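[step 3/7] fold_predict: job queued, chain A
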Amino acid sequence: MPKTREVRDALKPEAFAAGARPRAAEVHPETSFAVLAGVPMSASKKTGAGIDERLEALAGEFPDLQETVVGAFWPEPPRPALDDLLDAAAAAWTARRLAADAALCLGEGETDETGYPMSIWA
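[step 4/7] structure written:
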């Protein structure tokens, strides 16, 4: 929540106006994967089967993902975990959809006690 509050505090109030396009959006990678694939992922992202399943879902959007991310060489620590990289790719897919005005909004219209939109995008 501290990082979410930092983003909220940096946004101008007009960013929360009804109908405004989000300048920052909350993404839940597993939701994005489910929307992208048309079904929820069946295996944990920490397993080989789960990694393969997510790579397959992303392949049509990021054709060279396997070579550039999975085969990437990280010479210096800290090295990102593979599941974190796949989650980032799912978030990037959602960002593309937001930019194209094609993203799915879950919780549209709901706000918290401060008036901040309570939405997850995919």
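[step 5/7] annotate
Strands lie at 105-106, 120-121.
Residues 2-121 form one domain.
exit 0
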